[in-house]
Specification:
The chain has three helices and no strands. By secondary structure, it is mainly α. The protein has one domain. Helix 1 runs antiparallel to helix 2 and helix 1 runs antiparallel to helix 3. The longest helix is centred in the N-terminal third of the chain and has 65 residues. The protein starts with 9 loop residues before the first helix and ends with a helix.
């Protein structure tokens, strides 16, 4: 077997290494950007759940007012008791939605772990190449 000989100078080799490392770093930045976008989208959905829970709780407060009027007109229960029951149910449902959104939002890890891991691997590879 014949060995291939590279006639490039040391300066050319370091120039190539520098260009390749620059390309690699740019690709890692792109990967991190993509990963962060995906995580931000997930966090946005969880924040929407929190918003929906808040809106439902606000609607519950409005129902409390409407319930007082309707109960006074039609039902035999005391107006305050009926309004209290409706309000408690609406606020409980709102609290459940808010809690669910908060718990899902707390599980979102915004650190671009894949990009960090591959950057570490590539840094190790670059160290090996310089030996």
């Amino acid at each position: 077997m014949t060995q291939a000989r590279d006639d490039r100078s040391l300066g050319d080799l370091f120039g190539d290494l520098s260009r390749q490392l620059t390309t690699l770093i740019r690709q890692e930045i792109d990967l991190a950007r993509t990963e962060m976008t995906a995580k931000a989208t997930s966090a946005g959905r969880d924040a929407a759940l929190i918003g929906a829970g808040g809106a439902l709780a606000y609607g519950g407060a409005l129902v409390l007012l409407g319930a007082v009027v309707l109960i006074l007109i039609q039902l035999g229960l005391d107006a305050w008791l009926s309004a209290l029951i409706v309000g408690i149910v609406a606020v409980a449902l709102g609290a459940i939605l808010v809690d669910r959104g908060r718990s899902q939002l707390s599980r979102v890890d915004i650190v671009p772990e894949r990009a960090i891991e591959t950057a570490k691997d590539e840094a190790e590879w670059a160290k090996e190449q310089l030996k």
